[in-house]
Structures are given as structure tokens and as C-alpha cells.
Amino acid sequence: MFSKIFPRIHAEGYKFLVIAVIITLVFYSFSDFLGLIGLVLTVWVYYFFRDPERVIIENDNYLVSPADGEVIKVEEVDGPKELGLENKKFKKISIFMNVFDCHVNRTPCGGKIEEILYKPGKFFNASLDKASEDNERNYFKIKDPNNNDIIVVQIAGLVARRIVCESSKDQELKQGDRIGMIRFGSRVDVYYENYEPLVKVGQRAISGETLLAKR
Q: Catalytic: 29?
């Protein structure tokens, strides 16, 4: 029960939490009202960087959600040209994370990371289509246990200013392992083959737990 009310926070969050506490103390020195605003800000920073444990299905016949948020796209597209996959068809699911969602990202499948590619970019609203091509983003190409290519793309949003990658090339992953996070509002795209989608636009997803697709 305690861990649900006060979940652990991601290592990236500690410095922001300290800054928020200092701001709160400074605000309180001016007035109780400003101090209350600072306190609300501090609580929000704590919960933004929360990193709760999740129950993972650990089944190679499913893909799980890489992010908390709203499903905004379920479609068939060409693969990412940045990875040389533009001539290959994939299904794609996009999940938008607002500033109240948990921003720790997880791998939708087990497997080996064959490639990681970081691309600097702009900061359009992550819910817009052009965010997939123009925003700062980080690509993971994963070979799943069924020999399928699974692509996970972390995309920075309107107010996000840093994508945090916590994985490395040739790393072996278990389904639901943490692979990184994005700070302050963002989106994750999943490109996959040989699976059928189990979610629809408008549905809420929970990282590591919601089943996105099935073989």
C-alpha cells in the first residue's frame, strides 16, 4: 500500500525534486500562498518521475505497451527510413504521454537490441504526425524471440528536452525491462510485424502491462 502511494522515483528525478523543494522554501519565505504553489509543484515533480513496479506477462506471443498514456494511432506504415526500413511494411501503434503519466519506458518484447539510433530534432506537440519525423527521437531496433523486427521510438514532446536511454546495443532484454525515459511530455511509437493489434485509438495503456498485439 505504501509503495502505491509513494512509489520509487527514477534516478533522473532526484535533482529536479531537490530544485522543486528549494523553490518551495524560497516561495514560503515570501508568502504561504506561494509556498503552497511550490508544494504542489514539488508533489507533481515527484509523481512525474515515479517508477512503479509492473506485472509483466512474459509471453513471447504478445507485445506489451512501452509507455503509459493514450493510444493515438493504430495503422500500417512504411518502416523508419532512419533504420533503412522504408521499403518494409509495419503496423504501428503510437502512445501519447501527457505530463501526468509515468514516463519510464519499457521494451514491448524480449530479445536483443540490434541497433540504437539517436536523432536530434525539434519540439512539436508529440501528438502531431510530424513529431515522428521532426522531433528529437531515439530508435531501438529489437529482434524478438520469434525473429521479428520490433522498433521502439522514443519521441520528445512540446516541453520535453531530453530523452534518456538506459540500454545499449547487443543488450539482451526481457519483456517489460526498462529501456529509458523521456522528460516532461512525449510519445512512443512501436513498429511491429506478424502481430495483430489488440488496442484501439483512445484507449489508455499501462507500460509493461497493457497487451498491445498478439501473434
A: no
